[in-house]
Amino acid sequence: MKISLQNTIFILLIFFGISSCTLQIKVSTEKDNLSDERGVKIIVENTEEKEYTGWWVYGEGHHIFKDEESLEEWNLEFTNENIEELVELYLSITEMEYFPMECKMTGRLKKEIVTKQTTLIVTDFEILYIQGCGEE
């Protein structure tokens, strides 16, 4: 028995809809900005904010967060901050790229099912410790 893509999406929507009221699901079949390929994007976003403790790492224009509890790495997206000022802040504290800073991030997770990428949408953060510097 072959299940069509639309039926698969419908089944996923029903499953996630029943499983939790704190999830938001977005389905898109638009072209990706970076390529000419048409594909399906299924994004599951938690609407409930939570605090996460771990390490913020910046390098080559990319911000990631390594969660202390799960040891998973997530992309970071800062909603209330100027990205240039964040880069300047990070580099002024660490004095180099790829130097981990222990932080407490407040935000919600957004997962893209097809590409298996998770992004932490950050609404607030606190720098706790700079790894290796002994400063607080």
Q: How many structural domains can be distinguished in the coordinates?
A: 2
Radius of gyration: 18 Å
The amount of helix comes to: 10-25%
* Tally of individual helices: 2
Compact summary:
By secondary structure, the protein is α+β, with helices and mostly antiparallel strands.
What's the helix and strand layout?
Elements (H helix, E strand, L loop, with lengths): L4 H15 L3 E6 L12 E6 L3 E10 L2 E6 L5 E6 L4 H12 L6 E12 L4 E14 L6
What does this structure look like?
The protein contains 2 helices and 7 strands, in the order αβββββαββ. By secondary structure, the chain is an alpha+beta fold. The protein has 2 domains: 1-46, no CATH class; 49-136, OB fold (Dihydrolipoamide Acetyltransferase, E2P) (Beta Barrel). It has a 5-stranded mixed barrel. A hairpin with a 4-residue loop joins strand 6 (101-112) and strand 7. The radius of gyration is 18 Å and the shape is elongated. The termini are far apart.
Descriptive terms for the model:
136 residues, alpha+beta, OB fold (Dihydrolipoamide Acetyltransferase, E2P), 5-stranded mixed beta barrel, 2 helices, 20% helix
